[in-house]
C-alpha cells in the first residue's frame, strides 16, 4: 500500500503541470504549421484531380481521333454533313457539303494496290 500512496502523492504534487497553458507564440506557430500542411494537402489533392481529368480527356480525344481517322461511325467518306430543313436557309452549310464532296473525291485519287496509276 505504501507504493500506491507514494504514486498518488506524486500525481497530486505534479498535477499543476498538466493544467499549464502554452505561450501564445507557441499556439500561433502551431496554427501556422497546421495551415501550411492543410494548404499543401489541398494543393496535392487538386493536382491529383486535374491529372485524372487530363488523363480521361486525353483518352476521349485519342479515341475520337482514331475513330475519325479510321472512318468508324461516319460512312466511307469520313465526315458526313446533313442539312435539315430548307437548304435556302443554310447557304453556308450547302457550300460546306459541296466542299466536303469535292475533297473526298480528290482524296480517293490513288489507292494502294491499283497498278498503273501515277501520283498527281
Map the helices and strands:
Blueprint: H1 2-13, H2 24-69, H3 91-107
Describe the structure concisely for a colleague.
This protein is an all-alpha fold. It is built from three helices and no strands. The longest helix has 46 residues, at 24-69.
Give a written overview of the molecule.
- The protein has 120 residues and is mostly helical.
- The chain folds into 2 domains: 22-73; 76-108.
- The chain has 3 helices and no strands.
- The radius of gyration is 38 Å and the shape is rod-shaped.
- 0% of the residues are buried.
Largest sheet: none
Ranges with pLDDT <50 over ≥5 residues? Answer: 73-78
Q: What structural class should be given to the helix and strand makeup?
A: mainly alpha
- Give the number of DSSP strands: 0
Shape: rod-shaped
**Hey, roughly how much beta strand do the residues contain?**
under 5%
Q: Mind telling me the C-alpha Rg?
A: 38 Å
Tally of discrete structural domains: 2
Q: Residue-averaged pLDDT, rounded?
A: 76
Distance between the ends: 110 Å
Helical residues, percent: 55-70%
Spell out the helices and strands N to C.
Answer: HHH
Helices, by number, come to 3
Structure keywords:
2 domains; about 120 residues; about 60% helix; rod-shaped; mainly alpha
Amino acid at each position: 500500500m505504501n507504493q500506491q500512496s507514494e504514486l498518488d502523492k506524486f500525481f497530486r504534487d505534479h498535477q499543476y503541470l498538466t493544467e499549464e497553458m502554452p505561450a501564445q507564440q507557441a499556439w500561433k506557430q502551431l496554427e501556422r504549421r497546421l495551415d501550411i500542411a492543410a494548404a499543401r494537402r489541398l494543393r496535392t489533392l487538386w493536382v491529383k484531380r486535374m491529372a485524372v481529368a487530363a488523363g480521361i480527356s486525353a483518352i476521349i480525344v485519342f479515341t475520337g481521333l482514331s475513330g475519325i481517322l479510321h472512318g468508324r461511325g461516319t460512312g466511307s467518306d469520313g465526315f458526313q454533313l446533313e442539312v435539315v430543313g430548307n437548304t435556302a436557309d443554310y447557304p453556308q452549310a450547302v457550300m460546306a457539303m459541296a466542299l466536303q464532296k469535292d475533297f473526298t473525291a480528290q482524296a480517293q485519287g490513288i489507292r494502294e494496290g491499283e497498278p498503273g496509276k501515277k501520283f498527281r
